[in-house]
Amino acid sequence: MAATFQTRICLAFLVVLAHVTYCPVTGVLRDSNYYTAAVVEFTPSHKWGNNGTLTLRDNYRAYLEYIKEASKQNADIIVFPEDGLTSLYMPHRSLMDSWATVIPSVLDNYVPCTQNTIQNVSETLTSLSCAARQNRIYVVVNIAEKEFCKPNGKRCSDGVSYHNTNVVFDRTGKIVARYRKVNLYMEYNFDPTPIPEVITFDTDFGVKFGTFICFDILFPVPALNLTRTLGISNFVYSTAWFSEMPYLTAVQTQFGWSFAENVNLLVSGYHEPKNGNAGSGIYLGRRGMAVGTITASPEHRLLIARVPKRTQLSESSESSESSEQNEVCEWKLHERRQQIAKPNDAGLDSLDQTKKLDTIRLLHDDLTKYKSVLLNASLTEQLCYGDFCCDFDVRKNSVDSGTSYRAVVYDGVRLYGRDVHAGIRVCSVLQCYNDSIYSCGFPRSSDTAFTVLNITATYDNYHELLVMPTVLDRSLLPMQRFTYSELVNGNQARVSIALDRSTKNLLTFGLYARDFSRDRNDRP
Ligand SMILES: *[C@@H]1O[C@H](CO)[C@@H](O)[C@H](O)[C@H]1NC(C)=O
Ligand SMILES: *[C@@H]1O[C@H](CO)[C@@H](O)[C@H](O)[C@H]1NC(C)=O
Ligand SMILES: *[C@@H]1O[C@H](CO)[C@@H](O)[C@H](O)[C@H]1NC(C)=O
Ligand SMILES: *[C@@H]1O[C@H](CO)[C@@H](O)[C@H](O)[C@H]1NC(C)=O
Ligand SMILES: *[C@@H]1O[C@H](CO)[C@@H](O)[C@H](O)[C@H]1NC(C)=O
Ligand SMILES: *[C@@H]1O[C@H](CO)[C@@H](O)[C@H](O)[C@H]1NC(C)=O
């Protein structure tokens, strides 16, 4: 199909660039330039008790049906969520044995379906290997791993380490990747990996993937090693995300990361809305979201999309010795939601979707320490938090008295979960329901229309940051009509995000940056 993906607007290349700048190209991509990806929004079954066998068995059997269906629809690869086999309800570490499996190393070239030379490989792993083999499809699952180690070693007092692990089977059922989660989110029954792993795998369709898990998305290791050092541009990602308003709901974060790094991201999310877990999708970097879902009761659990193999498209120029670097790239995103499997899937930003949202439990960021001003009809002003400044250009009509909006700036440290103190820099507009800051971040429909909304931030140590667009509408999906521009000069950058057209029902719009230099982990 000769769809125009994207207007290429590289405004100007003022000088010859020392860094290669990537800008998307408009173009027609041939079939061989795509692969077909499937992700599953999955609710694990979960049997009480300390014997994991029955829980795992129920869940892998459910996986087999999705694997068959995805294969029937010609998917090359299918991704399942974090904790999707064990459920989130694993017992205390001392009772983990039946919940966890030995996972052979990639170096063993092991096909659990046809080999039995390695002991303590579980029935679950064997069955999934057979399913990948029978259905000729790459299968990505997340499972609790046990690694036998020498007792009395560091972190190995009882002779075993437990890991939160992604495993990838190729089309013959062979294990081609094993990745142990680096950034654990309070998961005290798992052991931190002593040496962080940076894991990739190759496929027979010519795409090299990176992989990581859930909370990893907010950290540099291994995610940014993969994108920025190794140049990987396709990712499989399993998650059991706890959505938080107003910046870190699931699809908003997934979209923001894929856009920021300009890479394809295939996300499978754990689904248990009363707990706050929902949200999966297939994201195409600066081409936007191919498909995404976050609802209390999804109509479809299997999301399938065709994915262009390359996100980075043209190299704008050769390297040079020039010291003066000015790179201006601007992206316009157009609403383009492609889905080949189920045309009515994820009926995005419809009112139906809105109705299905209200039973998703949402966490709330503490906004009281952020600096903010109430937005009246218009604001053209620079707001600073310490040295961090953002320019706001806002015009809105205020026909809706049931909602109000604030412009927000923050540069500081916040807590993720219980242990992780994280540096963030934020500037955005937020929806509130009255003039109190405590009323911000509770999704409501709003007839207030923004006719102009342009936020520009300046960053000094740009290449050490992760700067993501943070955009959210009433359906808890990213609104995708915006222009994004980055003006990079050495390690400095001015980044703008601006709405393309008059927009209602806006919840969050701005830039969310992680500043890793201020991170601290107090995990006991
Ligand atoms: C766990 O349950 C399975 C199935 O009922 C049973 O076969 C197995 O022996 C049990 N394992 C343990 C450690 O109790
Ligand atoms: C691993 O497998 C061996 C041989 O089947 C068995 O004796 C041993 O108990 C198993 N260990 C664990 C921790 O499951
Ligand atoms: C990953 O990146 C970090 C810096 O963010 C660096 O310290 C580390 O050595 C890198 N690891 C690998 C394996 O490249
Ligand atoms: C918006 O209006 C309120 C009340 O009139 C005023 O106190 C506030 O300063 C105005 N905000 C801005 C950003 O101008
Ligand atoms: C905002 O609404 C909450 C309840 O929804 C109420 O308690 C609070 O007083 C209101 N604040 C303002 C400033 O109107
Ligand atoms: C947004 O504002 C910035 C800074 O004032 C400006 O450079 C940019 O062109 C504006 N973007 C749009 C789309 O209006």
Describe what you observe in this structure.
With 524 residues, this protein is mostly beta strands. The protein is 11% helix and 37% strand. It is built from five helices and 28 strands. It has helices at 53-72, 123-135, 223-229, 250-261, 351-355, and strands at residues 8-13, 22-23, 34-40, 77-79, 138-148, 160-169, 175-180, 200-202, 208-213, 234-239, 244-245, 264-269, 280-284, 289-293, 302-308, 314-315, 327-332, 363-364, 371-374, 378-385, 388-397, 404-416, 420-432, 449-459, 465-473, 482-489, 492-499, 506-521. Helix 1 runs parallel beside helix 2 (123-135). The longest helix has 20 residues, at 53-72. The termini are far apart. It binds 2-acetamido-2-deoxy-beta-D-glucopyranose (6 copies). The site of one 2-acetamido-2-deoxy-beta-D-glucopyranose has 4 residues, from helix 1.
Tags for this model:
single chain, about 525 residues, mainly beta, seven-stranded antiparallel beta sheet, six-stranded mixed beta sheet, 28 strands, about 35% strand, globular, disordered N terminus, binds 2-acetamido-2-deoxy-beta-D-glucopyranose
Brief sketch in words of this structure:
The protein is mainly β and 524 residues long.
List the helices and strands and how they pair.
Blueprint: E1 8-13, E2 22-23, E3 34-40, H1 53-72, E4 77-79, H2 123-135, E5 138-148, E6 160-169, E7 175-180, E8 200-202, E9 208-213, H3 223-229, E10 234-239, E11 244-245, H4 250-261, E12 264-269, E13 280-284, E14 289-293, E15 302-308, E16 314-315, E17 327-332, H5 351-355, E18 363-364, E19 371-374, E20 378-385, E21 388-397, E22 404-416, E23 420-432, E24 449-459, E25 465-473, E26 482-489, E27 492-499, E28 506-521
Parallel strand pairs: 3-4, 4-5, 9-10, 10-12, 11-18
Antiparallel strand pairs: 1-17, 2-16, 3-15, 5-6, 6-7, 8-9, 12-13, 13-14, 17-26, 19-22, 20-21, 21-24, 22-23, 23-28, 24-27, 25-28, 26-27
Bound molecules: 2-acetamido-2-deoxy-beta-D-glucopyranose (6 copies).
